[in-house]
Design goal:
Distance between the termini: 116 Å
Radius of gyration: 37 Å
Shape: rod-shaped
Number of helices: 18
Number of domains: 3
CATH topology of the largest domain: Rossmann fold
CATH architecture of the largest domain: 3-Layer(aba) Sandwich
CATH class of the largest domain: Alpha Beta
Strand order of the largest sheet: 9-10-11-8-12-13-14
Strand content: 5-15%
Number of strands: 14
Structural class: alpha/beta
Largest sheet: 7 strands, mixed
CATH superfamily of the largest domain: P-loop containing nucleotide triphosphate hydrolases
Helix content: 40-55%
Length: 549
């Protein structure tokens, strides 16, 4: 009977030890990872791996790899954000929990070991093992149960963290790579590069400023700082990764350190199309810009497509020039910084940004303006940068600057030339001048579309000349009048070339020589949904949609 009771007593002690083991590991986790120990010497809290440590570690590694201090001029340090738990913090926590659990057991086992085995608290050990035998056995059973449960729990914890680390460095790393590749394909297919209209700087995506503290994040792609979301290292605000998602939860800012201009909501996530317009002095570039813009806006209003200007300067400039154009009071473009008119079509994730650029014809002949390091809206230095990052070029050709066409018009209406301002440069020279500069700067014109726009077609028609409508007919008409470099060279140099004839005054979509047609084709070819755009893409027909034969 006594033996039975003693056996149960040992079993009870063992069971109590098992339960105490759960308490031990729970208390160790709490005081190590989350709690505040009253005696820090007994439980050392786990060191928190800070975002600044991540920055410093990455910079040191990159400096060692390159052999030069980083970040270099024009580069940014790693963003200030909390790295993934498995990156460093998991390993730090594992070591801290193990050290504290080991210290906890050491404190628990100190008295029993010293008493029952080392004679620290008496001259003899035999009384414990002979006279008080149940006591040491019960104590050791209790401690043994606690030891087994606490360390088994720790190794389960260790295994889970190790498995998470392995998963993050294999499967999830592949997932992050797939997300980055998918975002790259989306950016390329949808043309979502971010354009700053202040400095004319274009980047794949902008910097995104945290809406809470303003901390700028220059690379929000999935990385060690987050797969689907990231946490700001300054204020702790969480927002999505990927520009296509982060653009709606942060403020877009120009990446150029000297600029830092705030950009419209959605920059880096929505389609952004830049249409540079170039040509000789007095070729009709400015008239084409605002007449095509006016035609597009009328078309959008009829189709009930919402649009707005992206900034106040664009609105004021466009409204002023459109009113002057409609009153036929358009003066020569002043020789100053390039004009950029920016619009937004639709809203939210379905929005499209459109930027139209115009510069005085004299700027294309000034070598200093082709120093395209960065544009400057206050000077002409680098003011032609918009050509370097354009996607859809519009070349305006004055037909009166072609000798044979001018002679034909003069023979039919001798007074016409006195009423027309004629471009002072041969159209092939002005075209070749710009194309040569772009090639020298490494601009990939072969991936771009070119709209060759023959301006002042209404004046030619008024003089009795037969002006063609179809793109192929226009090309043949120009070639027959001696414009060979444009008609023969452009199709080989650009991805796609189409020819258009436009009126010098603003007209509606239902009339011939509508200046909005070239713009709608360029936009539709880059995925912008504009009224009549699908019909323009279907075939290279010049006649405006809805125009009578």
């Amino acid at each position: 009977m006594i033996r039975f009771l003693l056996g149960n007593f040992y079993l009870i002690a063992l069971q109590a030890g098992l339960f105490f083991g759960f308490f031990m590991i729970a208390r160790t986790f709490w005081l190590t990872l989350w709690g505040q120990a009253k005696n820090p010497q007994q439980f050392l809290p786990s060191m928190l791996y800070q975002p600044k440590q991540y920055q410093d570690e990455k910079l040191q590694a990159e400096t060692k790899r390159l052999g030069v201090p980083v970040p270099r001029p024009g580069e940014f340090p790693p963003d200030l954000a909390w790295p993934l738990y498995t990156f460093r913090q998991a390993g730090i926590d594992k070591k801290a929990v193990r050290a504290n659990l080991l210290a906890y057991h050491k404190r628990l086992w100190t008295w029993p070991v010293n008493t029952f085995f080392k004679r620290r608290y008496g001259k003899h050990r035999w009384p414990w093992w002979v006279l008080l035998f149940p006591v040491p056995v019960s104590v050791l059973s209790f401690l043994g149960g606690a030891f087994l449960v606490s360390w088994a729990s720790y190794w389960v914890y260790w295994g889970l963290l190790t498995a998470s680390w392995w998963l993050d460095h294999t499967v999830i790393a592949v997932l992050r790579g797939q997300l980055r590749a998918r975002e790259g394909r989306r950016r390329k297919g949808k043309h979502t590069a971010a354009a700053c209209m202040k400095c004319l700087h274009v980047t794949p995506w902008p910097a995104y400023a945290c809406r809470t503290c303003g901390e700028r994040h220059h690379d929000v792609m999935p990385s060690d700082l987050g797969t689907f979301f990231r946490k700001c290292g300054r204020c702790g605000t969480t927002f999505p990764t990927l520009p296509s998602r982060a653009a709606w939860h942060t403020r877009a800012v120009c990446k150029r350190a000297e600029c830092q201009q705030e950009l419209p909501d959605g920059t880096g996530a929505v389609r952004d199309i830049r249409v540079p317009i170039f040509g000789a002095v007095a070729a009709g570039k400015t008239r084409f810009l605002y007449s095509s813009l006016n035609s597009l806006q009328q078309d959008l209003d009829r189709a009930r497509v919402k649009w707005e200007y992206l900034d106040e300067p664009s609105r004021k400039t466009a409204e002023d020039w459109i009113s002057r154009m409609q009153a036929d009071k358009v003066d020569k473009t002043q020789d100053g910084p390039a004009t950029a008119i920016s619009m937004r079509l639709r809203e939210g994730t379905h929005a499209d940004f459109i930027h139209l650029f115009d510069a005085a014809g004299e700027q294309f002949s000034n070598p200093g303006n082709w120093t395209l390091g960065y544009g400057n809206q206050e000077t002409n230095a680098g003011s032609l940068r918009f050509l370097e990052d354009g996607q859809a070029l519009a070349y305006v050709l004055d037909p009166f600057s072609v000798d044979s066409i001018r002679e034909q018009a003069a023979s039919r209406d001798p007074s016409l030339l006195s009423r027309v301002t004629i471009a002072g440069m041969d159209p092939e020279v002005s075209y070749t001048e710009v194309l040569t500069q772009l090639r020298g700067l490494g601009v990939p014109v072969e991936s771009q579309r070119l709209a060759v726009i023959v301006s002042k077609a209404d004046l030619l028609s008024g003089a009795g000349l037969a002006v063609p409508f179809d793109s192929g007919d226009i090309a043949r008409w120009l070639a027959s009048n001696g414009v060979h470099n444009v008609t023969m060279g452009a199709p080989r140099e650009f991805r796609e070339v189409r020819y258009f004839t436009v009126a010098s005054l603003g007209v509606s979509i239902g009339r011939a020589h509508d200046p909005g047609v070239p713009l709608r084709w360029l936009l539709a070819a880059h995925g912008v949904k504009v009224p009549g755009g699908d019909a323009l893409l279907a075939k290279p027909a010049r006649r405006p949609v809805g125009a009578s034969a």
